[in-house]
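> tool_call: predict_assembly(chains=two)
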Amino acid sequence: AQSVTQPDIHITVSEGASLELRCNYSYGATPYLFWYVQSPGQGLQLLLKYFSGDTLVQGIKGFEAEFKRSQSSFNLRKPSVHWSDAAEYFCAVGGSGGSNYKLTFGKGTLLTVNP
Amino acid sequence: DSGVTQTPKHLITATGQRVTLRCSPRSGDLSVYWYQQSLDQGLQFLIQYYNGEERAKGNILERFSAQQFPDLHSELNLSSLELGDSALYFCASSQKRGGTDTQYFGPGTRLTVL
């Protein structure tokens, strides 16, 4: 069964500081990996996704993530955080074929940005 | 704006009641997915429909059912509601059946069961 672990429930950073949100996944085949962001009272917005190819993927809002198969990780990074980045971030893994179309989400990491 | 619409935005009802949540996918998307987000369980996949047919089932209770209509909109029916069904229900859509498809999420329906 596929699973996602986001070890950090809550992270606080100062505006302008760098950010790394951790994500570890468990999946038997080639995973499809996603990061979504949820602002208060909003739906989920896709930040970036990895299907294959270059293991460093660029997303919207200046975010990037690196797929490391050996570590079963897909960590999200941003070099300089803005106050508007405060939100909850979800890592998700999707099936690569067959009938496994669902997304399995981690529990989320809540990001607080201090001025 | 993802292009996925959900109605209503908020729903307050009593235990034992039945409600229907509605979702309209993005134009051209054939797959609709339903997810439940609660504080204790997090985001959980409930069910997927593709072009009117059920394709995948997750942790969906027997009291819950869904369908996708010929115009591709979908409804999630929740019956015999319990306090624990209070949650945010998301609909997502994608172009095809899944896999490399990106799922685009609607704003959600917040259900409160009193």
